[in-house]
Specification:
With 174 residues, this protein is mainly alpha-helical. It has one domain: Protein Binding, DinI Protein, Chain A, CATH 3.30.910. It is built from five helices and two strands; from the N terminus they run αβαααβα. The protein has a two-stranded parallel ribbon with strand order 1-2. The chain is elongated, with a radius of gyration of 30 Å.
Length: 174
């Protein structure tokens, strides 16, 4: 008798869970594609690349100057007294240290700008996804990178990309 009650309860719970699964709609979105192909993402990428190129050019010029100074100090080695030579070396090391600090600051600043801009895209995307899920009765939207296999019909990336491009076209870096 206990087994029979257990079996009935099991069937009831099983049919309830099947009904729940049938009512839930799931979709997925390729966030990387959204970031790469959206108008805002492309604008952001272009601006970041230009800023990175400017930084690289600036770094290259300063490195060349520092190398020239190093060569000048080495040429003067035999002409200068030991104290004067050490002073020149010390000054050069200070300049190299300052250059490295400046370089790290620019790299960190660029990274921070990238993250802030991506956050703007995500904040704009969130209400779009919320509205899309309400309009299409979707219970769960997942990132494609977290899915092992799924039907292509569940991929809503193209629709979301269109909606995002309508909402935000360009992001201006600070």
């Amino acid at each position: 008798m206990k087994f029979f009650k257990f079996f009935i309860i099991f069937l009831i719970l099983q049919s309830f869970s099947i009904k729940l699964y049938a009512e839930n709609n799931v979709a997925f979105i390729d966030m990387q594609l959204i970031m790469d192909k959206s108008l805002a993402g492309q604008s952001l990428k272009k601006q970041l690349e230009n800023l990175h190129k400017k930084n690289l050019e600036s770094f290259k010029k300063k490195e060349d100057i520092l190398k020239k100074k190093e060569q000048d100090v080495l040429v003067k080695k035999n002409l200068l007294s030991k104290e004067e030579f050490q002073k020149e070396i010390s000054n050069l090391r200070t300049e190299v240290k300052n250059y490295n600090n400046e370089r790290n600051e620019k790299i960190n600043s660029l990274t921070k700008k990238r993250l802030e801009s991506m956050e703007i895209i995500l904040k704009t995307l969130s209400p779009i996804l919320t509205e899309y899920s309400k309009n299409n009765n979707i219970s769960l939207i997942m990132d494609k990178k977290n899915i092992i296999i799924g039907k292509t019909e569940l991929n809503i990336t193209k629709e979301i990309l269109i909606l995002l491009d309508e909402k935000i076209k360009k992001i201006k870096l600070n």
